[in-house]
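Need residues for this backbone.
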């Protein structure tokens, strides 16, 4: 176990499980802007499944790393082409910082994972014309954005401004065209 966020999350999760307090009270006892609610809850679930081990501590971040690589591929394939998407995944996976963050429990990689899912869902909303599909992708966006907020609250709000511009781009263009006429 590494010192820093990984050790902090592991100790906080251990204390949360042993305290027997309801989740809300345990979080308020350790209130901090750097608390990652999702990291603590998923680590507690991993502790229940795998026992208190290094594997359980790092499981959620490793899972988010794999999911992020899938969404890097999907976004790159959507924006460029399939060959470039494969290269993008290999280059992302091969970087030292990616390997460092994906092997330690932290809140940065899950935040990026949920942000990639939110961006992908926004692109899917703009691509499809079916109402049911748009509702499904909007639901995926809402959940992934909410998970972004729960992962790292103090940095997730900056993404809100970028995502809202994507969501309302078509509506703003139609409104501006109507006013211009």
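Answer:
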């Amino acid at each position: 176990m590494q010192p820093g966020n990984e050790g902090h999350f592991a100790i906080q999760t251990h204390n949360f499980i042993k305290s027997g307090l309801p989740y809300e009270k345990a979080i308020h006892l350790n209130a901090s802007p750097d608390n990652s609610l999702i990291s603590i809850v998923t680590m507690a679930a991993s502790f229940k499944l795998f026992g208190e081990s290094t594997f359980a501590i790092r499981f959620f971040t490793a899972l988010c790393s794999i999911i992020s690589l899938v969404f890097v591929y999907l976004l790159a394939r959507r924006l460029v082409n399939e060959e470039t998407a494969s290269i993008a995944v290999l280059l992302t996976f091969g970087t030292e910082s990616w390997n460092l963050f994906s092997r330690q429990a932290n809140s940065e990689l899950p935040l990026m994972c949920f942000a990639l899912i939110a961006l992908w869902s926004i692109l899917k909303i703009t691509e499809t014309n079916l109402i049911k599909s748009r509702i499904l992708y909007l639901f995926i966006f809402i959940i992934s954005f909410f998970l972004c907020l729960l992962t790292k609250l103090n940095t997730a709000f900056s993404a809100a401004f970028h995502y809202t511009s994507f969501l309302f781009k078509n509506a703003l263009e139609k409104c501006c065209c109507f006013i211009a006429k």
